[in-house]
Design goal:
single chain, mainly alpha, MetI-like fold, globular, membrane
């Protein structure tokens, strides 16, 4: 049976796979458009035109800034609280046992419930989307941080204490690097959830932002505009992940992004 060279095949596959995935999505989208019509599902081209109209009119930029303020502000607060709680749990197991049931409790509360409560508590203040993002995402970050501290080899921690390593050294060289393996997936999940919850709170609360544009598109039955707002949200999320979280992950854990040796790497 003939064999074919695989040199560079891994790189090619990694480059082609995302394009193929998006191509299949666009094809299915176009097929749905032909099946159900523009009122139910506008075509990708119609959605792109609607998005272009929102961008050129300046409406998209203003709404994106408001939603980004809600999503990124809430995410930043949740990240600080979650990482801090996880670090404390690693240093003092009693704190971890105290925080764990609270994190599980908050994870079980639906995001829509927090939206409704925040609209009651913060009506007229504009804080509802920000508060909803914080309470919806902080349990995700705490759960990841707790998992990272709990899976640390206790012998390593005991050895660090036996050699009287300073607290700063233990945090920077022991707890921190180990937590990163569990923390970054949690942060990526929390980032995606932050944008969803922010838009949801804006839709229901009438707050300025992408959610307000979605609500207006629903009232006017402008499905193309609604999909354009959704596309804008996804593009913003991918942009923030690609410009902030992924480069930060590469900087803190560069060894995870080194190409493996073998036929796929061209060796």
């Amino acid at each position: 049976m003939p064999s074919f060279p695989r040199t560079g095949g891994g790189r090619l596959a990694r480059a082609v796979a995302p394009v193929l995935g998006f191509g299949l999505l666009i094809a299915a989208w176009q097929g749905g458009h032909h099946a159900y019509g523009p009122l139910v599902l506008p075509s990708p081209l119609e959605t792109l035109r609607a998005l272009g109209s929102l961008v050129t009119s300046g409406v998209a930029a203003q709404a994106a800034l408001e939603t980004a303020r809600h999503a990124l502000g809430g995410f930043a607060v949740a990240a600080v609280i979650g990482v801090g709680a996880g670090g404390l749990a690693g240093l003092w197991p009693f704190v971890g046992r105290m925080i764990d049931p609270l994190a599980r409790l908050f994870l079980g509360i639906p995001s829509i419930a927090w939206v409704v409560l925040s609209l009651i508590w913060f009506a007229g203040t504009g804080l509802a989307p920000l508060f909803t993002v914080v309470v919806a995402t902080v349990p995700v970050v705490i759960a990841g941080a707790l998992q990272g501290t709990r899976t640390l080899d206790p012998d390593l921690a005991a050895m660090a204490r036996a050699f009287r390593a300073p607290l700063a050294v233990r945090v920077a060289d022991l707890y921190g690097p180990h937590m990163l393996s569990y923390l970054f997936p949690a942060l990526m999940t929390a980032m995606g959830l932050a944008w969803k919850v922010a838009v949801m709170a804006e839709v229901l609360g009438g707050s300025p932002g992408i959610g307000e544009g979605l609500a207006l598109a629903r009232v006017n039955l402008e499905t193309a505009d609604a999909l354009a707002w959704v596309a804008l949200t996804v593009l913003l999320l991918l942009g923030v992940q690609g410009l902030i979280l992924i480069p930060l992950h590469r900087a803190l854990e560069p060894w995870r992004h080194v190409a493996p040796l073998g036929p796929e790497s061209g060796s």
